């Protein structure tokens, strides 16, 4: 069993023993990073692999890096300590790399809360390669975006999941790879200015017991991957949009249903996406609520 060591740094040097309550974390250890240190840690050095660690980011905790490879490592929010915001929830945590983050198949990055408290974890880097698990779960929200103000390159051959009332928000990203995007059990996947290439799979749960999620589209006029398992109880939310009608047509080449949601106004904006399988327009409905259009299955 490893030990738990807490960051209390007076400098940003991860490897300096005086910056930790029990020395720098070793494989098998848990590193707790909150706001106790005068400055936040930066993981750097000749070996950019963080191996076999659990990193608990308390509210307001910040982990920096230049480029970093997570190997058998978990980066996660920690609700057990840290300051509370004025609403009772902890402030957000941050994991920021100026060059790139690589998540191996045995690693995960997780934002998780509970029924009473929500948490957030912002992962900011120009390049993120995921072969493991990235998730927002249990009332936690995971943000994925570049820290340069540009477009993040997101290579996903792993699993990105919004589950159990958690949320994953991806902003300004170019997604490649053959990975999965899952929306399960009340989860919310929020996409804004995201493009896709490759065999990306996006879908809700195939199990009715895990259904009831939301795919949220903001400034995303065309969603190219087909959406799977869109059933009664699931939603596609289109922000800043007022729908007037839905057009659906089965595509004989892709075996998906191409859906156009026609918006109000002189320009008649269109939100386009596809649903896996054969779905008729009569099986789809919409409602406009508080500046957003919600598309749902009626049968």
Q: How would you describe the overall organization of this protein?
A:
With 299 residues, the chain is mainly beta. It is 0% helix and 52% strand. The protein has two domains: 220 residues; 74 residues, no CATH class. The chain is built from no helices and 27 strands. A ten-stranded parallel beta sheet has the order 1-2-5-7-9-12-15-17-19-21, with no helix packed on it. A six-stranded parallel barrel has the order 8-10-13-16-14-11. A hairpin with a 4-residue loop joins strand 23 and strand 24. It is elongated and about 65 Å long. 44% of the residues are buried.
Topology summary:
Layout: E1 4-6, E2 30-33, E3 42-43, E4 49-51, E5 54-58, E6 62-71, E7 74-78, E8 93-103, E9 108-112, E10 119-124, E11 127-130, E12 133-137, E13 140-145, E14 152-156, E15 159-163, E16 167-176, E17 180-184, E18 188-196, E19 201-204, E20 214-218, E21 227-228, E22 235-239, E23 243-251, E24 256-263, E25 270-276, E26 284-289, E27 292-297
Parallel strand pairs: 1-2, 2-5, 3-6, 4-6, 5-7, 6-8, 7-9, 8-10, 8-11, 9-12, 10-13, 11-14, 12-15, 13-16, 14-16, 15-17, 16-18, 17-19, 18-20, 19-21, 20-22
Antiparallel strand pairs: 22-27, 23-24, 24-25, 26-27
């Amino acid at each position: 069993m490893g030990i738990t060591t807490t960051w209390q740094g007076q400098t940003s040097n991860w490897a300096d023993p005086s910056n930790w309550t029990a020395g720098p974390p070793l494989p098998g250890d848990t590193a707790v990073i909150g706001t106790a240190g005068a400055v936040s840690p930066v993981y750097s050095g000749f070996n950019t692999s963080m191996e076999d660690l659990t990193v608990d980011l308390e509210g307001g905790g910040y982990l920096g890096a230049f480029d970093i490879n997570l190997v058998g490592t978990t980066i996660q929010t920690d609700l057990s300590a840290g300051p509370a915001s004025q609403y009772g929830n902890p402030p957000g945590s941050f994991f920021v790399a100026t060059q790139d983050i690589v998540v191996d198949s045995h690693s995960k990055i997780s934002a998780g809360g509970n029924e009473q408290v929500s948490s957030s974890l912002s992962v900011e880097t120009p390049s993120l390669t995921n072969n493991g698990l990235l998730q927002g779960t249990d009332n936690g929200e995971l943000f994925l975006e570049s820290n340069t103000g540009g477009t993040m390159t997101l290579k996903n051959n792993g699993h990105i999941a919004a589950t159990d009332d958690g949320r994953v928000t991806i902003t300004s990203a170019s997604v490649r790879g053959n990975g999965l995007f899952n929306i399960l059990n009340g989860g919310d996947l929020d996409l804004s200015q995201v493009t896709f290439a490759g065999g990306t799979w996006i879908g809700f749960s195939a199990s009715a017991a895990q259904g009831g999620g939301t795919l949220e589209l903001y400034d995303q006029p065309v969603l190219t991957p087909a959406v799977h398992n869109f059933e009664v109880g699931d939603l596609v939310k289109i922000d800043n949009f007022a729908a007037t009608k839905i057009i659906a047509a089965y595509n004989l080449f892709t075996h998906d249903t191409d859906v156009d949601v026609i918006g109000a106004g002189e320009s008649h904006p269109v939100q386009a996406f596809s649903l896996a399988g054969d779905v008729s327009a009569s099986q789809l409905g919409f409602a406009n609520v508080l500046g957003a259009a919600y598309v749902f299955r009626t049968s």
